Structure formats: C-alpha cells, structure tokens
Amino acid sequence: xxxxxxxxxxxxxxxxxxxxxxxxxxxxxxxxxxxxxxxxxxxxxxxxxxxxxxxxxxxxxxxxxxxxxxxxxxxxxxxxxxxxxxxxxxxxxxxxxxxxxxxxxxxxxxxxxxxxxxxxxxxxxxxxxxxxxxxxxxxxxxxxxxxxxxxxxxxxxxxxxxxxxxxxxxxxxxxxxxxxxxxxxxxxxxxxxxxxxxxxxxxxxxxxxxxxxxxxxxxxxxxxxxxxxxxxxxxxxxxxxxxxxxxxxxxxxxxxxxxxxxxxxxxxxxxxxxxxxxxxxxxxxxxxxxxxxxxxxxxxxxxxxxxxxxxxxxxxxxxxxxxxxxxxxxxxxxxxxxxxxxxxxxxxxxxxxxxxxxxxxxxxxxxxxxxxxxxxxxxxxxxxxxxxxxxxxxxxxxxxxxxxxxxxxxxxxxxxxxxxxxxxxxxxxxx
Length: 431
Known about the structure:
17% strand
C-alpha cells in the first residue's frame, strides 16, 4: 500500500507513523509513505502557501497553484482523499474499502481550508473523522492511515485481531483481561478461566451486545443480529426517550381551509392509530382534546368499549393501547394532568405541515432540539386536525416542529401518518 501524504507540515507524521506496528509495516515494505511537502512547490523567497480569501472573512486559505503542483508531482495518485469536516464520515466499512487500493493520496488542509477550485480539477473525495474542527487535516490523515493499514494482510500479529475488534461486526468489542487473576479483589470473570470455549464465546457476544446497547446504541440498526441476540437485548435495562413524550390531538381550536377557527370531529381511526403508536413507542400518554360534549361522549364510548367492554376481551392488546388515552376539554387540562403525573410542567411544542413564512419568523424546531428537551423534562407535542392548529394554541408553545417533508412541494399527510413518522424520528430508538 502506497500513501502519498500531501501537507505543508509533513514532519507532523514523523512520530505517529514511526511507532509500533506502523513502523514495522514500513520497514517490511508492506506500507510505503511518500511525503509531499506543499511548500516545496510554492514560489517566491518565502515559499508562501496561503493567502486571504475573496469576499473577506477571517483566516487564510491554502493557495491553488502550490497544491496543483504538489498533486501533479505524484505519478500514481490512486484514490485522492482530503480530510475535511464537510466530508463523508470515516468508518470501518470505508476503511475496508480503502484497504483494497494500491495507492491513496491524502491531502491535509490547514487554516480555513483550500481553494475550492482544487475540487473541480481533481476527483477528490472529502472524508471526515468526526463532527469537530481540528487545526489541520494531519491528525485525521493519521486516523485514516492506521484504520486502513491494519486491515492489510500481514499487518497484524494475529490475523483474526482486526475482525474481533469494535465495529468489525457492527458491535463494540467485549472486555479483555490478563494476569493477575485477582488484583485487590478485582477478579477476572470466572467464565474466562473455565476453559469452556463455547461459554466464553457466548459471554463475549453478550458483552459486546450489552456494551453496544449501553454506550453506542446507534450502531444496532446496522449490526447483524441473530434472534438470540435480539432476545438477549430485549432483557437488558435501557432508558426509553419516549417516556417523557406526550402527544395531544387538538380538535378545537383549529382552522379550516379558509383560515377560519373551527372544531373538528373526533374519529375512531385517529384514536385507534395514535393510541397504538403511543403504546408501541412507550410514550407517556396520548390526549384527545375537544370541548364539545357529544364528541367527548363519543370518545368515552370508544374508550370504554376497548378498555373495559367487549373489545377488551376480544383484543387485549388494543385495550392496553387505549389505557394510554385520555380525553380533555383543552390543552391546558392536558398540561395539568402531565404535571400531576410527573411533578414537572411539560414543555410545549406544536406540529405543522406549513413553514412560518412571516418576516423574521423563528426557524422551525429540529428533531434534535426536541430530543434535547425529552432528555430532561416531559414534553407535550401537539398535533392539529382540520387544516392546522389555531394561533391561540400555537401561542402557548415554545416552537413549531419542522414539517415532515419540508424540502418537497407536497406535504399533506393524514394526521395519523404524521404522528407515526414524527414519533419514530423523535424517539429514534429501534434499540
């Protein structure tokens, strides 16, 4: 594997790439490092490689001409990668893909970045080692170089090592122990001293699963999980983000297509589907609000049928879902009920299929913002019927969630569909 390291500070790589297994790989010729010093291609007495950006702004940019000359000096560039916060995230899958290459050119930027026209002139792939900003790309280049090199045949002392580590199977790695067996009362797990390789393999798998669930549950959706893995994970304790989320379907006051304030009828389908979403995602509760007596009576008859009547005997699962449903006159009553349950006044947010296009309107809330609320307090998320919530309801909230399809010109989902999609995005806990 040949790496061409393009940088204005090539000496940055001296220490990390001359240590341990990397140094051994270089000595044996498994890895070849070609340092390309951009300053050697800069003109003038001072070998200047940077200049001020057009349009003003802070910082300096690496100039185009020295970068072009530096890249053109490389005979076999192979894949050209540039470390950048704008790039595609570096992960184990990308490292495996790159390990099949013969040549990789790594460009390390500095200052505010590199003249954008470099990306027009060469097939440069941007890659990022994380959602943070470094002084330059060299540290990221070392991460990429090590992640790729250790997958090369002959790099690791034990050929299985690379495949038994974190991310290789989509899970975090299990814990390791060595001598002594007992250190001040801290003992090596008995299973590892048993000599039973089957039990040891099962223990390690379960440790990988539980550690991933605890520390990096976001990896589980992409992990290859057996039925046994899933059964094990189901039994593990975990914090459910949904426990703090309450939803309300407001039937009054809402607006019609003419913008007039109206009341909308309670429907059997809305109550059924939203109750099942509430139970499936472990939400705190679901409120249907209407001040109209005959509509409240209709809702109560439906609830009685499924919770305590014949429906509960025919379909106990439906009864369980409807146990999360309450009917109140208005949003204020729902707020008081949540406060009585949790001891905290919930934060209120609304949903809408439309963006607020008034001048200087606040940007719509993102799912990340609302998730941060859920981590610390109960939240009541209000959905509207008809053509949306009336202003007197919206004014009670701290923000309006961004529409489901905000980048498209058609955003007319049924409220039942919108509830399912929005709750799934918010809770995001397949795990």
